What does this fold into?
Amino acid sequence: MIISANWQVPAHVKAYCSTRQQGYSAAPYDSLNLGTHVGDDPQTVAKNRAALKKHVDLPAEPQWLEQTHSTCACDLDTACEPGSYDASYSCEKNTVCAVLTADCLPLLVCDAQGTQVAAIHAGWRGLLGGVIENTLNQAQFQPANTRVWLGPAISAQAFEVGAEVKEAFIQHQPVHKNAFITGKDKAHFYADLYLLAKQRLHDWGMDLAHISGGDYCTYQQKDLFFSYRRDGQTGRIASLIYLS
It folds into this structure.
């Protein structure tokens, strides 16, 4: 049901990612679907969320967001304005930051001392728009003191995009050219979300040695993860982080 983040952070920083296994939803959401917006039965989703909370022994209900591929981040320690957010952060104990994904890249973040955490949802639109940098700057993380775990996302071998996506990234930063390889024809390219995120974090000032994860492919590992690109109508996994 759960993957623990593999990174060097203080023990009281708890970081997990769910899989699609050991839940209650029927196909095509089988079985641990945690998204309420994908067409699954709401009562079943609630049952899945309760099972996750019990399995991980979460101290509180995760702070679920209305995600829209924006670049907005919510400070969970204050009263966020109503609306959509694709990231959240907190300095308070037992406040569970969470993002839902099914190919997009989840990033879990903390500082080296374990006094602050954040969860970020980054598809290519969010990456291009700056959701990572916006969140880290808004939360006042410092590059030298920040640690990041890249959760399960679609890999470069499976994520084909149009030439306009490649060009948009290169216009922002020429080094992004290295994150694209030619696809089935000259008008399509395979995009590496993991590398794009690392490039953005490095440009922000992070040492690449402080970035962990990036070991999974939601598209190829069908037994573990939901994939919108592979299946269309499907469920969502959750990436969670909090201070215990």
Summary: Residues 2-153+210-243 form a domain with the CNF1/YfiH-like putative cysteine hydrolases fold (CATH 3.60.140.10). Residues 42-56 form the longest helix (15 residues). The two ends are 21 Å apart (CA to CA). The mean pLDDT is 96.
